[in-house]
Amino acid sequence: MLKQRHHCLILSVFTLLVLGCQEQKPEETHPNVLFIAVDDLRTELGAYGNEFVLSPNMDALAASGTLFNHHYVQVPTCGASRHALLTGMRPSKPIHLSNSAIEKEISERPETNVPETFIHRFKQAGYHTVGIGKISHSADGYVYGYEEPVSQKKELPHSWDELVFNAGKWKTGWNAFFAYTNGENRQSLKKQVKPYESGEVNDDGYPDGLTANLAISKLRELKSKEKPFFLGVGFFKPHLPFNAPKKYWDLYDETTLPVSSNPNIPENISLKSLHGSGEFNGYALGDEKASLQASVSDAYAKKLHHAYYASISYIDTQIGRLWQELKTLDMEKNTIIVIWGDHGWHLGDQRVWGKHTLFENALKSALIIKSPYIEHQAQQVENVVETVDIYPTLLELCSIGNDYPLDGESLVGLMNSNKQQTRETAYSYFRNGISLRTEKYRLTKYFRKDTPTVELYDHSADPLETKNIADDEPEIVNRLLPLLEEGNTGLYSKNL
């Protein structure tokens, strides 16, 4: 009997040791979420194969998490893209293509059981939600015009427990969004500014450094809370103006930087599919004006690539600071980190400087999800995915249910390498058109009088989208058109 008791004691001690060594799974504690939105971040990162840009922190997050190599936004403009992200729904009426989508569709509505956004759903599920910077369309989450005083009207009235921002010497969120180091901004200087600046300042000499400081302070506060948290952090760069501290410009030799490998108008299209870079040209002191008639000089194109890359490196450092703080606070092992670019940007591609097209350059953006689950680490997903997929993905990762329809589909199966995805398509909308992206093709249909109204690009043979082959491949067009029309949920008349 004594011997049997001795064996039982040894077995009990061994069991306790094993259990003690087992790390508690994130799903048992409802993992925190650090959601980082980066404005105008196309796939210009080392993780995506860019050999020139210096983005070590985002590259490391991608290497240790899941990198989505073919992520596409619903709308290539800030407010509308974020509306799709937040609601998990594709555009179904014209206002959903506007930067006013969130203000008009969400900010005026009373609270109901159906959440206004996925952040609201986290709040309903017991998460403490904090927003810093540009998560919805507004630079600080409040509804007011570029040159108006800050209002008290929230864009997302029911989503945030806390909504905070440090505008610094620029005083308002929108002033900070277009900030120059002297405390002025694009509005106050009446657009008599360059579209770039190399500032002789430290990181907090521009607003994104202040945002990182505030987020770090907030992480320290959240450490002591009993609730899990959702912390949204929205960085402004590399949105125009391409302004960053000089030390990030100094990382690059401008003469070695590339220019666009596709600076020409695609063959067999209407110029209505493109635009004249109006936002970019609105910076009146730019070295040259962009147009569809001729490319800017290679020297200026290199300057602008330099500015864009410096802005990315600046933001990469801020993201690295947040990641390091999670490690310091011993919170990384129970926190999901998401990096999402709200759309792409033409860097002179197809002679365009800006977003606002239905071409690959404007629609493809960065998406990285670093999950604490070991099966999601060091993964690369080649499948075509959409921004609306992020909503159900985060709910599933955090074991939060929903009983209302979403257009998005959870990506957790892809992150698990189970390849569980019922479709491999992405729908995007703009310029009176719908664009369908499949693994091999991009088919775009424009609901307009200007011809051609249908464009087809074969990405296996023409990844730069240099030639519309719709007239050459009618069988492929006819096969894909019904699939494209499935994405037309009343947005456009099908009779055009």
Descriptive account of the structure:
Strand 17 and strand 18 form a beta hairpin. This protein has helices spanning 2-21, 26-29, 56-64, 78-87, 101-105, 118-124, 173-177, 207-223, 246-249, 278-281, 298-328, 360-363, 390-397, 412-415, 474-485; strands at 32-38, 66-68, 71-72, 128-133, 162-164, 196-199, 229-235, 242-245, 335-341, 346-347, 353-354, 367-370, 379-381, 385-386, 426-430, 433-437, 441-446, 454-458. The chain is of the alpha/beta class. It is built from 15 helices and 18 strands. The longest helix is centred in the middle third of the chain and has 31 residues, at 298-328. Mean pLDDT is 93; it is low at 1-24.
SSE diagram, text form:
Elements: H1 2-21, H2 26-29, E1 32-38, H3 56-64, E2 66-68, E3 71-72, H4 78-87, H5 101-105, H6 118-124, E4 128-133, E5 162-164, H7 173-177, E6 196-199, H8 207-223, E7 229-235, E8 242-245, H9 246-249, H10 278-281, H11 298-328, E9 335-341, E10 346-347, E11 353-354, H12 360-363, E12 367-370, E13 379-381, E14 385-386, H13 390-397, H14 412-415, E15 426-430, E16 433-437, E17 441-446, E18 454-458, H15 474-485
Parallel strand pairs: 1-7, 1-9, 2-13, 3-14, 4-5, 4-7, 6-8
Antiparallel strand pairs: 2-12, 9-12, 10-11, 15-16, 16-17, 17-18
Helix pairs in contact: 8-11
